[in-house]
């Protein structure tokens, strides 16, 4: 019996505002929700202009703190993803997987675990020994690497994922192939390039 691997299209958006990247994500999510097929799964790769984003599990952010961050020259967005406040900026690789989990496994817990394993594989390609813990997150020793090297904040609605992974402190052009290799291996998929 031959197992068909899900296809995932890689789209490089370059440097883009968070607002514009969010619109692109929403277009890809709509394609999934309007379609009964397992395509087009997409990995959106980009860098952002300076922006702070806050997830839904955060208490309302004080308006004066939001204004202070904006005064530093960054945008500020409240999002529908999990997680706390996160800075995105030039030189940081951002990866937004927009996947229909029906093409993989209809489990948000499985998806989060696969993202963690992808980060662990990517770290190992940079010589960093990372692991998971009983709680969510990827750790190097006693340090939660998701706060240092990579942040995962996801949203999933009707088993279509959005938001994603942010890598830091490695030139993006060096990080992209390692991320794609780790993602391909962990999600057992075939990448399609534009």
Topology:
Elements: E1 6-16, H1 18-33, E2 41-48, E3 51-54, H2 63-71, E4 75-78, E5 86-88, E6 93-98, H3 108-125, E7 131-132, E8 138-140, E9 143-144, H4 145-148, E10 150-157, E11 160-167, H5 172-187, E12 189-193
Parallel strand pairs: 1-2, 1-12, 3-4
Antiparallel strand pairs: 2-6, 3-5, 6-11, 7-8, 8-9, 10-11
Describe the structure.
This protein has one domain: 2-Layer Sandwich (BirA Bifunctional Protein, domain 2). The protein is built from 5 helices and 12 strands. It is globular. It has a 6-stranded mixed sheet, with helices on both faces. A 3-stranded mixed sheet has the order 4-3-5, with helices on one face. It has a 3-stranded antiparallel sheet with strand order 7-8-9. Helix 3 (108-125) packs across helix 5 (172-187). Helices cover 32% and strands 33% of the residues. With 194 residues, it is an alpha/beta fold.
Helix/strand/pairing category = alpha/beta
Rg of Cα set: 16 Å
The share of residues in extended strands comes to 25-35%
Tell me the total number of β-strands. Answer: 12
Count of spatially separate domains? 1
The CATH architecture comes to 2-Layer Sandwich
Mean pLDDT: 82
Counting DSSP H or I runs of 4 or more residues, the number of helices is 5
Give the oligomer, counting copies of the same chain as homo and different chains as hetero: single chain
Largest sheet: 6 strands, mixed
What is the string of SSEs from the N terminus onward?
EHEEHEEEHEEEHEEHE
Please give the order of strands in the largest beta sheet. Answer: 10-11-6-2-1-12
Globally, the shape reads globular
Q: CATH homologous superfamily?
A: Bira Bifunctional Protein, Domain 2
| Share of helix, binned | 25-40%
Within the CATH hierarchy, at the fold level, what is the topology?
BirA Bifunctional Protein, domain 2
Q: Would you identify the regions where 5 or more consecutive residues have pLDDT less than 50?
A: 146-151
| Main CATH class | Alpha Beta
């Amino acid at each position: 019996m031959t197992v068909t691997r899900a296809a995932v299209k890689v789209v490089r958006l370059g440097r883009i505002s968070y607002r514009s990247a969010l619109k692109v994500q929403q277009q890809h999510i709509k394609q999934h929700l309007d379609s009964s097929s397992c395509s087009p799964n997409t990995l959106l790769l980009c860098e952002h202009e300076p922006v702070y984003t806050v997830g839904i599990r955060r208490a309302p952010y004080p308006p004066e703190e939001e204004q202070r961050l904006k005064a530093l020259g960054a945008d500020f967005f409240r999002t529908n993803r999990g997680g706390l406040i996160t800075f995105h900026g030039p030189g940081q690789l951002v990866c937004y997987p927009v996947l229909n989990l029906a093409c993989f496994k209809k489990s948000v817990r499985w998806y989060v675990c696969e993202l963690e394993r992808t980060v662990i594989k990517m770290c190992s390609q940079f010589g960093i020994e990372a692991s998971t813990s009983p709680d969510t997150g990827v750790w190097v020793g006693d340090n939660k690497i998701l706060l240092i090297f990579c942040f995962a904040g996801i949203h999933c609605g009707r088993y279509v994922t959005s938001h994603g992974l942010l890598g830091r402190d490695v030139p993006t052009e060096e990080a992209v192939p390692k991320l794609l290799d780790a993602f391909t291996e962990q999600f057992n998929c075939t990448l399609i390039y534009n």
